[in-house]
Each structure stands twice: as C-alpha cells, then as structure tokens.
Amino acid sequence: MYNKTAFTIDEQIVQLKNRGLLILKSDNAEHFLSHISYYRLAGYWWPMQQEPKDKHLFKTNSKFTDVIALYNFDRELRVIIFDAIEKIEISLRTKLIYHLSHEFDPWWFQQLNIYQNVPEAVKTLATLEAEIDRSKDAFIKEHKKKHADDQRFPPSWKSLEMTSLGALSKIYGNLKNTVQSKDTIAKELGVVNHTFLPSWLQSIAQIRNYCAHHSRLWNKNLPGRPKLLSSPPLPWIINVPKEHEFPLIYIHLCCIKYLLNSIQPQNNLKPQLIALFQKYPNVDPNAMGMKVSWENEPLWMI
Fold first, then answer.
1. 242-246: which pairs have CB atoms within 8 A and are 24 or more residues apart?
2. What highest taxon heads this organism's lineage (predicted)?
3. Of 14, 16, 148, 162, which residue is the least packed, with the fewest Cβ within 10 Å?
4. Are 235 and 59 in contact (CB under 8 A)?
C-alpha cells in the first residue's frame, strides 16, 4: 500500500541533497520547486541517478543547475517543434479541404462511404460536432444563423477549421485507398503515396499533443513509429536510425523537417535547433537520438 505523505519544499530539497544532488543557495531551488513540481523535474534528473534507480542516489557532480538547464532546454525545444508542426497542420487541413471538396463535394467528410473504418469515422465526426457546437467563432455562428434549416455540418472549409491535427490525421488515414485525393496530398507533401503519410501524421500529432500539454520531449520514449520511404523523392538522411532508436525524437524531427521542406522551403528549423544546442552545451544530444553531424545530412542542408 502506498503510504508516502506530501513533502514541503524544504523537505524536498533536503531529500535531494541527501541523495547526492548538489544544490547551492544561489541555485534558488525554493523558487523553482514552488513553480515547477518535484515530479516534473524528476524526468530531467532521472538520468543523473545511479543504478539501481530505485535507490534514487545521484551520480557524482550532479547539479541542480543542470536539471534546470535541461528543463529550460526542453521547454524551448517544444516551442520550436510546435511552431514547425503548426505549419504542417495548416497545410494538411488546407489540402484536405481543397482536394476532397473538388473530388466529392464540400460535405465530403460526412460521407461515410469514403472511409475504411466507419465506426472510427463516426467517432471523429462526433468530436467535430462537439467542437462546432462549442465554437464562438463568428464564421460558425453566422453560418448557423444564416442556414438554420440546413441540418448538415458547415462545409469543410468551415468545419475543418475546428479540428485538431489528431482529428485531421485520423480523417486522412481513414480515407479509403481508392480516394484519389489521398495519394495527391501525399505526393504534394513529398511522401509518394498513402502508404507512408498516415504513420507520419499520427506520430507528429502525438508530439504536437506533448508540446501543447508541456510534456517532456528530451530523453523520452515516444510511441509513434513513422513508416519510412525506401527512396524518398526529396533529400533525406543517409544515416537512418535503427528501429530501436525510433522512440527518441530525432527520427520524428527528420519527418517534420522533410514535410516542412515541401511546405516552407528555406525554413529555419535547422538554425533554431543548432542555436538551442549551443545555448545549452550541457545537454546530451544522444538522449534525443541525434546522430553525429546530423546537421550535414542532405535533409538538413535545405
């Protein structure tokens, strides 16, 4: 039975010191622990602890300042990645609306016959309907007022503005493979066809949620497994990570960069990452799966 009681901030600091973490008065640990919870920071000091981990003893020279530096690095990394993913989300939304509205009609997303998994499509539409009902956006309110007798959702160019990247990725992935727009969108994003893009979008949507909820990305095992192209039409990486390295962020960053190179050529993702590593030299890039000289890979030279 779990029987631990809550520690005061002073008790938290004493415990960390007793376990070997170097904390100086100038580190202002009281301030940080009053604004960043003990267990949020634990994700950053975990690699600093000796084996066996259940003893919670720190390795020699482990410093509280390094923990805070890692925390700040990760926070700034999420901002950079979130900005890149925003561009992917907006592009995907635009392409879904444009191509499928022309292939079918403005209410294509409500046509259950174009989906592989109808129950999943119904769930996605229910989520979308809830978002539309909650919306205070002027264009949604005006549509409902002007077309009160129309029982359909607003057309895709209005309705899909209410969807998250996660919902958009589900809609795209669930389209039947016979839907022409599915391949068209993949080709326009440089991913050849529908075989590969769904796994990329699912992975990126998960990372987007981590960013939105301020979850750790550094040294984190990510659940997504993007399916990689054997011969990408656009510049890719030569030193491809092995399957066991896929849980780390690097391969996902590569997928984000690849899509971004089609959406926004000459983007600034590479210089932003380089500047971040330079700002925090104590951060180990290996904990993110970064390869040696990653910045010189063909993908990252664009």
1. 245/289, 246/222
2. Bacteria
3. 148
4. no
